[in-house]
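Contributing new records

If you add data, match the layout below exactly. Sequence lines come first and carry their own label; structure lines follow with theirs. Keep one chain per record. Anything else will be rejected by the validation script.
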Amino acid sequence: MIAMSNENYKDKIRKVLAMLEGAKTPGEAQAASLALQRLMARSGLTADDVEALGADDVEIPILEEGVYIGTNDTVWKKLLAAVIADNFRCEVMICSAVKNLRMKTMVFIGHEEDVQVASECYKLTIKVAQRCFKRYSKWRSDRCFPIDTKSKKVRNSYYVGFVEGLNEAYSSQVTENQELAIALLLPSDVRAFVDTKNLDYAPNRKVGFDNQHIRSHGYQDGYSYGTAHSLD
C-alpha cells in the first residue's frame, strides 16, 4: 500500500470540511466530523494545521451556540454538555449575559463546524438517554419493581450514570489512541476567544442519587451508546 503524502491528506481534509459546512442532517454532520478526526489521527496533522485548511484557505469562524437546558434535570445535562464539548473540540460555558437564564442556557464555543456538530450531538444524546430511561423504567415495572420516574433523585441517578458511562466510552477510545487525543485538543484560537468572553464555567454541584443500582444501569446504557458511536 502506498502511503498518502500530507498534501493528499490536506486535500481530503478540505473536502471533509466542505462536507461539514454543507451537512443537512445531524447524521451527515456527525459522520463528517468523525471522518475529520480519523484523517487528522492518520496524517499526523495538528489541530492548528487543520485550522489553516478551511475552504479556500480562509479563516475558520468561531461560533457561539446556546442550548436550552430547561428548569428540570439541569445537572446531568450540564455534565453531558461538558462531555460532548471535550470530544468535539469545543468549550461549553454558562451564559451570564442574562441573569435569569444562568441555570438554563449553556453555550458551545468553537469552530463553526465543530459547534454545529457538538450541538446536534448533544440534542440527539439527550433524546437517546431519555428513551433509554423510559425503557429501563418499563423493564422495572414489568418485573414488579417500579421506580418513581418523577423523582429528581431517581432521574439524576440514571442520567448521571448514563453520562458517566458515555464519558468512559469516549475516554477509553482517546486513551488507546494518543493521536486522536491530540486531534481533539481545543484549538488555540478558540481558547483565546473564550478568554475574552463574559462567560462562566459550569459550577460543580452535588447530585442526589436514589440508589446505586439505577445509576449503574444508566452507566451501562451510556457506555453501550458511546461504544456504538465510536469516535475512531
